[in-house]
Amino acid sequence: MSNTIFTELQELGFPAAHAAEIIKALKHYVDVNGRSWRDAIDYDWHRAHYPSLTKVQGILMQRVRNQLDGIPYVMGLTAPKIKAETLEDSDYPSVHFVEFDRLKSDLGTEEAWDDFTERFIDGWKEAGGIVFDLETGSPHPWCCPWIGNWGMEVEGETPQEWGASYWQQKHHQVIDCVRLELKENPPDREALENNPQLKEDLMRLGLLSKRKSRSR
Q1: How far apart are CA 88 and CA 73, in angstroms?
Q2: Which residue from 113, 141, 99, 132 is spatially nearest to 208, judged by alpha carbons?
Q3: Cβ(133)–Cβ(142) under 8 Å?
Q4: Distance in angstroms (rounded) separating the CA atoms of residues 105 and 26
């Protein structure tokens, strides 16, 4: 492994933004608990409760605890190594755990909520995400995580950045599901002509060639 906690956490599978938040949590434990910082982490781990951390940091520390190599890795760190870790906020995107009911309440009005969802979908689409299921009236469009979910985890600061981040998380899953649907119910030429967004999305994902779109 590399000699910084930031890179080591990424080698354990944590994205850069998550690694940065975990480092902040580790620094907090060391600063507040001194030589007993490991005991403090172990105590919070056993309770799965992190009252002194932010919500994001608590969720991520629990993920560390649940990962196969997470506990021995953290317990093998030293306080000087944790204190020596330096990261600027500008070095990585911020991570947010968004609860949709709370967000909608915080926005206050239906107009503000509609503006948020529109900008989120714009970001999703600009990053390469599909929207044909939204236009065809699907009850659970991929680009609308607030339908049927309590929340989401995203990076960035704006609705557009959140939409792009969510597509980056979901695009492999979306492509697999769309590929399966195409195998079971391939669209004919008329369906593609009647739904240009479907045709555009499938071609952008590499699931429909120009030749096939003409010949069906």
Answers
A1: 23
A2: 132
A3: yes
A4: 32
**Residue 102 structure tokens:** 């709370």
Provide the residue ranges of all domains of the chain, joining segments of one domain with +: 5-91, 95-215
Say how many C-beta atoms besides its own lie within 10 A of residue 201's C-beta: 22
- Rounded Cα gap, residues 194 and 58, in angstroms: 48
Using N-to-C axis directions, what is the helix angle for 37-47 and 16-33, rounded to 10°? 120
Query: One digit per residue, pLDDT tens: the chain, 216 residues?
Result: 458 999 999 888 888 888 999 999 999 999 999 999 999 999 999 999 999 998 889 999 999 999 888 999 999 999 999 999 987 765 677 788 899 999 999 999 999 999 999 999 999 999 999 998 888 888 999 999 999 999 998 988 899 999 999 999 899 899 999 888 888 888 888 877 888 888 888 888 887 765 454 444
Helix axes 100-107, 110-126, angle to 10 degrees: 120
Write out the two tokens for 20. Answer: 């940065």
Q: Which position has the token pair 């239906």? A: 110
39: three-class secondary structure by DSSP: helix
Run of H or E residues at 100: helix 100-107
